[in-house]
Design a protein that fits this description.
With about 375 residues, this protein is α+β, with helices and mostly antiparallel strands. It has three domains: about 90 residues, no CATH class; about 190 residues, no CATH class; about 60 residues. Helix content is about 50%, strand content about 15%. Strands 4, 5, 6, 7, 8, 9 and 10 form a seven-stranded mixed beta sheet that branches. Strands 1-2-3 form a three-stranded antiparallel beta sheet. A hairpin with a 3-residue loop joins β1 and β2. The protein is elongated and about 130 Å long.
Length: about 375
């Protein structure tokens, strides 16, 4: 049996506790047993049970592949069983939907469906600028046109899809602003980006048209190169499909879905609320990533601060040791001088030599005593502490 419950505590094996820690978020596990997540962490540390790392549950929730740390064997039998004290749990109020859940529910409501008009009416200023720029732009080798003027949206479509693309962008930009998601345009050396700010996170997105690439038949030069050298430079024809997609170009997890497109059964115009949900989820992921990165940075800075404090403490201790050794050496030296003076006086007395006040020996002894006093740290060093 993995565990047993009594009126006072829950008793679990170390293996069962490890299984719970890696299959249930700490907050939920703490609620189940009526304890705090801090207490769960203390139990893990005490019983040598590894905990999931930062970001583990977020990656698992988004379908990313995650791995668990193995439970290592320990020899202490007292740590093989874990006792969790039972505490009375108050009635837990019904949890209200989170801000993200509310936003997603709003998009799923039919009453809030984003509608694309048949004709472009009172277009958004950015859409109006982009439309004018696209109509005068020249297509690239694939037939794709992009706006060149400043303040335009990030759009890449064929000439025949310009009007449809602008109607979609007009409806979507107005929907963003009606939901109080600010829209801005960022222009730099690497190009332009249409930015939507959701949950205080900036997300870039683009409307584009798909194309197919078809290799051209070999011409005479290519056939000669293939026969002579075994290779040739391929040339392609590009065919615009008319299929539009709107895609997140920056923000969110790399592994999550980031685009909505025309399909055989639904046009992009009918998927704009779905793309709005993708933006909201991407904003949540970006915010979580940023907060986790900030927490890691905070911990690194805290560790660095502690390291600096430890280094400073170690340096001060080394300086104290050096000072102590220096004082001790000075004290031993002055004691040796005094012993030497005493030995000189005893030797003179033993030989019947009287040390006259004005004699050279008396002068030498006086000088030697001053020398000993000058070196004595107890005379020169202790008064510092009185100040």
């Amino acid at each position: 049996m993995f565990y047993e419950n009594t009126d006072r505590y829950a008793k679990l094996t170390r293996e069962k506790f490890y299984e719970l820690v890696w299959t249930t978020p700490t907050v939920q596990l703490a609620k189940t047993y009526g304890i705090s997540d801090v207490y769960i962490a203390k139990l893990c540390k005490k019983h040598h049970v590894p905990k999931p790392p930062l970001g583990y549950w977020a990656r698992r929730q988004h379908g990313h592949k995650v791995s668990s740390k193995p439970l290592l064997r320990i020899n202490n039998p007292e740590l093989q069983t874990i006792y969790i004290p039972k505490r009375p749990t108050p009635d837990i109020p019904i949890e209200q939907p989170t801000e993200v859940e509310q936003k997603i529910a709003f998009e799923k409501s039919e009453a809030n469906r984003i509608k694309v008009l048949e004709h472009l009416e009172n277009p958004h200023p950015s859409v109006e600028r982009t439309l004018k720029s696209l109509e005068s732009a020249r297509g690239d080798e694939k037939g794709i046109v992009r706006p060149k003027a400043r303040g335009c949206l990030d759009v890449a479509v064929g000439k025949s899809s310009i009007n449809r693309a602008m109607k979609i962008m007009d409806a979507f930009l107005k929907a963003l602003e009606s939901r109080r998601y600010p829209v801005s345009i960022l222009e730099g050396e690497k190009g332009r980006a249409t930015i939507a700010t959701i949950l205080e996170e900036n997300l870039a997105f683009r409307l584009e048209e798909a194309y197919e690439r078809k290799e051209k038949p070999l011409n005479r030069d290519q056939k000669e190169n293939l026969a002579k050298w075994g290779y040739y430079f391929r040339e392609y024809d590009y065919i615009l499909t008319g299929n539009l997609s709107i895609r997140i170009t920056q923000g969110g997890y790399d592994g999550e879905r980031k685009s909505c497109s025309d399909t055989k059964t639904r046009r992009l115009e009918d998927n704009l609320n779905k793309f709005m949900v993708l933006l909201i989820n991407a904003a949540q992921g970006s915010k979580r990533d940023r907060q986790e990165a900030e927490e890691r940075q905070r911990k690194r800075e805290e560790d660095h601060r502690r390291w600096q404090e430890e280094e400073e403490r170690r340096y001060r201790e080394q300086e104290r040791v050096k000072e102590f050794d220096s004082l001790l050496a000075a004290w031993i030296n002055c004691q040796n001088i005094r012993c030497f003076i005493q030995a000189v006086e005893q030797s003179a007395a033993g030989k019947g030599i009287e040390i006259a006040p004005e004699s050279d020996l008396s002068f030498w002894i006086s000088w030697a005593r001053k020398r000993a006093n000058a070196l004595d740290p107890i005379i020169s060093w202790i008064p510092v502490f009185k100040r």
